[in-house]
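Hey team,

Filing this mostly as a record. A colleague (T.K.) asked me to run one chain through the structure pipeline before their review meeting, and I want the input and output archived in the tracker in case anyone asks later how it was produced. No errors, nothing strange. Just documentation.

Input sequence:
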Amino acid sequence: MKKLFLIFAAFFVLASSFFNIYARDDNRDERVVVLEEGKTIDDDYFAAGDMVEINGTINGDVYLAGGQVIINGIINGDLIAAGGSVNIMGDVGQDVRVAGGQIIVSGQINGSLTALGGEVVLVDTATIGKSLVLASGNARVNSQVNGSLRAIAGNLTLGNRVGGKAEIYVGELRLSSGANVENDLTYWSEKDAVISSDSTISGALNRNEPVVSIDTDPKSIGRKMGSFFASIALGMKVAWFVSTLVVGILFLRFLPRFAQKTVSIIMKSTTRSFVIGFIALFLAPILFILLLISLLGIPLAFFIIGAYMLAIFLSVIPVSLWLGSTVLGKTNLDKRDFWDLAVGLVIYAIAIVLPFIGGFVQMIALSFGLGSLLMTIRETYSRFSEKKLV
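Output structure:
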């Protein structure tokens, strides 16, 4: 109970600090956070800014967000990071979860690596101690991977050892000189892989067409049950999609300025919205548990969890609007329409069901959406307070 309370207190203080820091005007000076070389922190570490650089040693888990994130030091726990660019040159003792426009890894990761980025590059000096999961437009895996490899990429080049199985959904796969898959390599692509004569595959090489098939063999009761529950799941997903689209349309119709503001915050205050949303995403359930345990706080606990679930549902709307307007090439923040919402929601719905990384994508998207909602609500309340309307 004491440990749970301390975790809650840490989240509360962190949330308050970040909210106050990032509630300032968008025209603030660039914020740089640096952990100096030679400094050691024997605790978990949280940091966010336009640039975040870790040169010291952290004996705990690390959570970073910034326009540019650089790891030169030593992290003896897990690392979770998001940024425009993320460069991991130091050592990480446990698992790494990272998202960014460009991700470069040249250091040592003793645990597993999950990476989501426009470009993911693992250079030959890097080592992944366990498994590698990645999703990227372009990926180059020249590091050693001691465990399995699972990837979704437009283009992927493999140029080093993979100790376990490799399963890859890819537009174009290339095995360059030095590639060594010590187990089976299975890939889904419309094109045959380009395999160098100097590369080796110890197991079976299997190429599959990138299509989704559903087994409906009536002779198997297990398969029947699987098909039945798959149908239910599909129906729930369709219902979620339609309901979210309808609510989004109502949002645009009756609260157009509010909707515009949420998207504007994601575009102009990307780091802020992500950090605040990420904290809120985990803070509310912890607060719910604490109030539930206290007995006297049970009514408030259910109110908080209800508001939390509503906020999670609504947070998809600003993310979808932003995705849609980005894909459609719109730059006018004052105009958000049905097509922005529809296109963005389709992209989001596809992304969250991708194999291996769908849950990670959903967490990142919900953090942005929830953060933008909270920031917009706060700004709206502040304006009403100034006019003495509340």
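Quick notes for T.K.: The chain has two domains: 2-208, 221-386. The CA atoms of residues 106 and 189 lie 28 Å apart.
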